[in-house]
Write a structure and sequence with these properties.
Oligomer: single chain
Number of helices: 0
Number of domains: 1
Order of helices and strands: EEEEEEEEEE
CATH topology: Jelly Rolls
Distance between the termini: 16 Å
Strand order of the largest sheet: 8-7-6-1-10
Largest sheet: 5 strands, antiparallel
CATH architecture: Sandwich
C-alpha cells in the first residue's frame, strides 16, 4: 500500500481477511419532510454495497435490488444502538445491538466503510434549506485481521 493512497481502504469480501466496523451511535435528527438518514455504509468502487438507513421510524439494512433487513421497526430518535459489520470468506454479516440480523453471501472488491450523517433529502425534495440530519457517533472502530 502506498501512504496516502486509496489502496489503504480498499478490501474485498472474499480476500482471505476479516474486515469489520463496530460503531456505537444514535440518530438524533432527520430532515423535516423526507425523514431519511443513512448512518453507516459499506461502499465499493461504483455504488453502495449496503447502507444502514432510517426512514421515519424504520431502521434497516438496504442492499440494492435485494430485500431490506429490518433492524428496528420503531426506532426513536436519540436512542443509542450498536452496529457491527463484518466481511469475511464471501459473507457480509450485520449485528444490531449484538444480535445477528444478516448473513449475506456476496463477493465484491474495492470495498470500504463509511460512517456519518448522510441525509437523503434536500430542497429539491421539498425540504427547507435549513432541514438537517444529525448522527452522534459515540465509538467507532475499523479493523482487519
Amino acid at each position: 500500500m502506498k501512504p496516502g493512497g486509496r489502496d489503504e481502504a480498499s478490501w474485498g469480501t472474499a480476500d482471505g481477511k476479516r474486515h469489520a466496523l463496530v460503531a456505537a451511535l444514535a440518530i438524533l435528527e432527520t430532515p423535516v419532510v423526507k425523514k431519511h438518514v443513512v448512518c453507516v455504509q459499506v461502499h465499493h468502487a461504483d455504488d453502495d454495497l449496503l447502507i444502514v438507513r432510517l426512514e421515519e421510524k424504520m431502521l434497516f439494512v438496504e442492499r440494492n435490488d435485494l430485500t431490506d433487513v429490518r433492524l428496528d421497526s420503531n426506532y426513536r430518535l436519540g436512542t443509542r444502538f450498536s452496529v457491527k459489520i463484518e466481511a469475511e470468506d464471501g459473507h457480509v454479516k450485520v449485528w444490531y445491538n449484538d444480535q445477528l440480523k444478516m448473513d449475506w453471501v456476496v463477493s465484491q472488491q474495492g470495498c470500504y466503510f463509511k460512517a456519518g450523517c448522510y441525509t437523503q433529502s434536500n430542497p429539491g425534495k421539498d425540504d427547507l434549506p435549513t432541514a438537517a440530519g444529525e448522527v452522534a457517533i459515540y465509538g467507532l472502530a475499523v479493523f482487519q485481521r
